[in-house]
Design a protein that fits this description.
The protein has 14 helices and 17 strands. The chain folds into two domains: 5-214 and 393-414, Glycogen Phosphorylase B (Rossmann fold, 3-Layer(aba) Sandwich); 223-391, Rossmann fold (3-Layer(aba) Sandwich), CATH 3.40.50.2000. The chain is α/β, with parallel strands linked by helices and 418 residues long. The chain is globular, with a radius of gyration of 22 Å. Residues 1-12 and 14-26 have low confidence and may be disordered. The protein has helices at residues 16-21, 48-62, 108-119, 140-143, 162-181, 190-195, 246-253, 270-279, 294-303, 320-327, 342-345, 360-372, 374-391, 394-414; strands at 5-6, 23-25, 28-30, 35-38, 67-72, 81-85, 88-93, 123-128, 147-151, 184-187, 206-208, 232-237, 259-264, 286-290, 306-309, 332-335, 352-355. The longest helix is centred in the last third of the chain and has 21 residues, at 394-414. A nine-stranded mixed sheet has the order 1-6-7-5-4-8-9-10-11, with helices on both faces.
């Protein structure tokens, strides 16, 4: 994925020729569609939503659709920035903090107004959850445009964290107001839709479009990233947060001999996980790698024997890292989370193994099965690669999103925005 930066000039998305070609003829769209994405973060920030948004934006640029992105700076960075990354106009509003994973950005509404004025988009693509998107509700310029809401994940009203439950009570009315105004809602899996209370009133607007990732050049394996006494090399990637279940994975590894773990990511549970690994006597079998650049991450996938996603709840809505593992030809072990898309990505018994979330013993047994059967690992890995190629490519996902853009804009030409 390209991250080339260029000097920015404040111009509308695309040039005058692009804008002139955006016409409605016989009910159809010809010419480029100017899209403004509203999200939390963007490259070089990491995370499944961020990586997909970047891939989708760059794909759109490559296919002639001018794209802008309005996101936040890292928490604690107050100054706004603006740059071109691989052709995408990326604007970052200052962010004073991010309590409960929520960027606080007093300047976001002003940056939205600026982006609408300068970029003149045809539609808004809002990535949820993100309270900053609520600024669109108060913007007459935004309200004149059609909105597509991308339901990447949701705030669980029954979260074990009382602070999240309390915050959601204030968040929900605005969330529902955005969903009411949206022309279409993209969900990443039918399982997530079926389990969602927030989406229940709006199912007639929902289109299920699975996430996708682009192909990658073959990487040189880097087995040296693992501890010296590696055994079977397990790989796990993600934010070191409680819902990711990495503590359960450490407990499972303590029950499995001749296996080691490379854990990639950072987060608020990092110190706790280091302490747990030490307490279980796994210092020589777990390598905490922190964040890696794309080339080193690819080398880690190329060297691994299996991939593990031990997440605990529906905060793991899809698991983009599963696609990265499948693309690399790795067998996977993942949590069978009710109401999550994980079970639609992993074909249990064909591309990997699903286990009950939070069950360290079941996770240990699944890992042991893969350790003991190299043929099973090979078979699952090949099937996973084939499943990615047939279902979860970026091209398939992005084409479906672009078709939805066209459908929304065609309907908008016949029905004025509310």
């Amino acid at each position: 994925m390209r991250t080339t930066r260029e000097t920015h000039r404040a111009l509308p998305l695309g040039d005058g020729r692009h804008r002139e070609k955006s016409r409605w003829i016989d009910g159809g769209v010809i010419g480029p569609m100017r899209v403004l994405h509203l999200g939390k973060y963007y490259a070089p920030e990491r995370g499944g939503i961020e990586r997909y948004t970047q891939a989708l934006a760059e794909w759109s640029i490559a296919h002639g659709d001018p794209v802008g992105v309005l996101v936040h700076q890292r928490p604690g960075t107050w100054r706004r920035t603006q740059e071109i990354i691989a052709g995408v106009d990326v604007r970052r509003a200052g962010c004073i903090a991010a309590p409960l994973y929520t960027p606080l950005s007093p300047g976001f509404p002003f940056e939205l107004a600026r982006a609408l004025r300068e970029l003149k988009p045809d539609l808004l693509h809002l990535h949820f959850p993100n309270p900053s998107c609520f600024a669109a509700l108060a913007s007459p310029a935004a309200r004149r445009l059609p909105w597509i809401v991308h339901w990447q994940a949701e705030v669980a009203p029954d979260s074990l964290n009382w602070r999240l439950r309390a915050a959601y009570r204030a968040y929900r009315p605005f969330e529902q107001a955005v969903l009411a105004r949206a022309r279409a809602i993209i969900a990443t899996s039918q399982a997530y839709v079926d389990a969602s209370v927030a989406l229940a009133p709006w199912r007639a607007k929902i289109v299920v479009i699975p996430l996708g990732i682009e192909d990658a050049e073959p990487a040189t394996p880097a087995p040296e990233l693992w501890p010296a006494q590696a055994g079977m090399r397990l790989l796990a990637v993600g934010r070191l947060s409680h819902y990711k279940g990495f503590d359960v994975l450490i407990e499972a590894l303590a029950q499995v001999a001749n296996a080691s773990l490379l854990l990639i990511g950072r987060g608020e549970c990092e110190r706790e996980l280091h302490a747990l690994a030490h307490a279980r006597g796994l210092d020589q079998r777990i390598a905490f790698a922190g964040e890696l650049d794309d080339a080193t991450l690819a080398a880690a996938y190329a060297a691994a024997d299996a991939f593990v996603l031990p997440s605990l709840d529906r905060s793991e809505s899809f698991g983009l890292v599963l696609l990265e593992a499948m693309r690399a030809g790795l067998p996977v072990v993942a949590s069978a989370i009710a109401g999550s898309g994980v079970g639609t990505v992993v074909a249990d018994g064909q591309t990997g193994l699903l286990v009950p979330p939070g069950d360290a013993q079941a996770l240990a047994y699944a890992i042991s099965r893969l350790r003991e059967d190299a043929n099973l690992r090979t078979r699952f890995g090949a099937a996973g690669r084939a499943r990615w190629e047939s279902v979860f490519t970026l091209e398939r996902s992005a084409l479906a999103v672009r078709a939805l853009y066209q459908s929304v804009l065609i309907r908008r030409s016949a029905t004025p925005s509310r």
